[in-house]
Amino acid sequence: MNPVEPTPGQWVTDEVPCFAVVGKVNMGKSAVLATLLEEDDDRIIRISPEPGETTRCQRLSLVLDGVERLRFIDTPGFQRPVDALRAIRGLHGNDQTTPGLDVLRRFVERYRSGGEFQDECRLLEPLLEGAGILYVVDPGVPVQDSFLAEIEILRFSGRARLAVLNRRGASEGAFEADWRAHLGQAFNLVRGFDAHQARFTARRELLAALNQIDERDRDHLDATLALLDAEWAQRRETAAEHIQSFLQDALRLRERRTYDEDGPAPATARREAEKTAAARYFERMSVLERETADALLAIYRHTAVRAKPRDGFGDDLDLTSDETWRRLGLNRQQLTVASAAAGATAGLSIDAATFGHSMGLGAIIGGIGGGALAFFKGDALPTLKADLGPLGALGGRQITLGPPRNPNFAWVLLDSILIRYRQILSRAHARRGDGELDALAEPEHSIARDMPTARQKTLAKWFRQVIRDQHDETRTAEAFAAIVDTLVDLENDL
User: Fold this and answer.
1) What is the helix (H) or strand (E) element at residue 219, kind and residue range?
2) What is the pTM for the complete model shown?
């Protein structure tokens, strides 16, 4: 999306509904636009705690299927609304009637070139051309005379008007009732919104509200919402493809190293080869996870954010220990009973000699949460399957490591990337500053644990197939559908 700054007379077109985003400085106009249009690039929409960042009008568009569907004009904030209202009334010269567009046009013509009401003139220009109004206010601040003057000036335009209560900060909504009382008398519609927390549903609802303020654009806006929904569904499927590809690559990952069995210390050489291969294996696994998270960020247009590597629980993490699972919020009953429906039925094998007891699907889906990849650090790594083979004519031995013997490993990977996905869906585009998707530990919010049993079975069967390096198109398609259904559930739960 590239901002455009047309000359007067070019803001509005008959082909696309246009709305000027107006309000007092530092009320969150740019933040509302950033989230509404999914734009996190400061070069396009600058969001700053300092007032007056927007000093000129700029055009920003909602584009779907390569076609502009809605046009928004980010305007400078009101600077002197009380004085401007007084000047407009003076130009009108009649206390018995209400000023209209002709008076606003005379006001702009008189003061456009001067510095007295320069910002007010700039924000009025799109209205004179026919743009509707999105008036953004912060309901956490009291209604003052300056705001009442703004409301009056906008009412004079006679344009379709939607007021947006941009709730934010500790004072969120403290004066919302007062705002609604005043806005309800001058605006076609009033809607609440939180630019720093809004998810897709809230964005869609705000766009849908535009349907209710000007019936002339209803058919166009209905078609736009249908395109928006179709695009969102396509994004979800693309995300599911990346997640399934990640799981497949991760479960089939192998790391190979060679060592000399005829040397002076073959046992030491083998241990060193295993250690080097294991370190490289988990390094590659961590990169796969992070690259997948970055791909998901790109799908949802977080262009200024990158995934932060996962943090671990500590160097003593041991997936074979009951104490580890208890520390993650699990008890013995969860370890031994919760897995019955999915783990046993799905046929994921358990190495009893390694684990000491039967520990099925419940062991991982009972709540490992955001620290799912914690074992990608230090020496506390799950035991990797090791295969030895000769190198042929060159001599020596080759050791192949992977995948981990722990049958819950696939669920660790799935839970981890799903938690990344949930974080991405929860991140509004108005958020600025950090540039990283945090790797937060949320052990009480496992996603895989809450899946329907039938879906767990479907995925478990597919995991087994992938680990064995087999391919069954039917099971792969069923697993993909299960992942898509899980992404839908995550959206609905936000």
Assistant:
1) helix 218-251
2) 0.81
